[in-house]
Amino acid sequence: MNTRIKADRFSTLWASLLLVGIFLISHPVSAQDGPFDIDKSPLPEPTSPVMDYAGVIDSETEEAIEQRILDFAESSDPKVEMAVAVVDTTGNIDIFDYSLAVARGWGIGARVDDDPGLLLFIAIKDRKYFTQVSLDLEDELPDGVVGSIQRSMLVPEFKKGNYGKGIADTIDAYIKTVEAKQAGEEPPFGGETEEKEEFTDYDDYGPSASDIICCAIGIIAFIIFIVWSVQSSNKGGRGGGGKGRKRKSNIDVGEVLIDIAGGLVIGALTGGGGSSSSSSSSWGGSSGGSWGGFGGGGSFGGGGAGGSW
């Protein structure tokens, strides 16, 4: 009877492991892409260049930031589109992946030969931030400069709870830097040598979902190997009272290991992914109000910098 129960448990475990494999094949997860569609925004369509989902920017400051962004988009050549998104938390999704999905999904950047764009993304309760810089804006705003501006303008104000001022000062610094570069002048902010330091901060964000799933699969495989070894040892033993008791003890250990492995499989299937609800669309039409939406570029390759406060 115990043998049949154990066989059933092994069958269930292998079936679950097969489901994990099918899930990973149909929902590929890489260290960069995260547990959701990296090209689809997990946030709703924006109705303004400044979207404060956390409610931390006062209305006057928010309007001023929005107008600064819109004025710069009109005066810059090529046109540079900037955006701000503030959320409470990204949940179990890495802020780099989350902000990259928003930048791409919102289509920030004019859809022309060059589509420079930028997204300043902030997660208030997580106390983290990341600025995504599009491929066509990386020359004007290299990673080190972005990191230097954030540490100088954003972090000190955020530590004091002045979120609106920190965001306004940071956007203003980005704009002045791009304006100087486009005019062939010396930019007001340096910082190229600080790139490595900024990305050291990014290392503190913790393991991604792909790291956790891969670790779980490795543990499951190791447990299966142990259980298989125990079973092989039991089959090779001879009958007899003493050895019978030893075999019973090994069976109990095997059953416990099977239960643990099964729990890990279920956890990988139900808890490792995170959800990405949402809906973004290709931009070009009006999204409401007097703002016509972003240009639909979205050419972001992971450039930028982030950290915490």
Describe this entry's structure for a reader.
There is one protein chain. The chain has a 5-stranded mixed β-sheet. It has a domain at 50-191: Diaminopimelate Epimerase, Chain A, domain 1, CATH 3.10.310.50. Helix 2 (59-75) packs parallel to helix 5. Mean pLDDT is 75; it is low at 27-34, 192-208, 240-251 and 269-289. It has 309 residues and is α/β, with parallel strands linked by helices. Helix content is 51%, strand content 11%. It has helices at 2-26, 59-75, 95-106, 143-159, 163-182, 195-203, 209-236, 241-271, and strands at residues 50-52, 81-87, 117-123, 128-134, 300-308.
Concise structural overview:
The chain has a domain at 50-191: Diaminopimelate Epimerase, Chain A, domain 1.
Layout of strands and helices, then pairs:
Elements: H1 2-26, E1 50-52, H2 59-75, E2 81-87, H3 95-106, E3 117-123, E4 128-134, H4 143-159, H5 163-182, H6 195-203, H7 209-236, H8 241-271, E5 300-308
Parallel strand pairs: 1-2, 2-3
Antiparallel strand pairs: 3-4, 4-5
Number of strands: 5
CATH class category label of the domain at 50-191? Alpha Beta
CATH architecture of the domain at 50-191: Roll
Question: Order of strands across the widest beta sheet?
Answer: 1-2-3-4-5
What is the count of helical runs? 8
Range of helix content? 40-55%
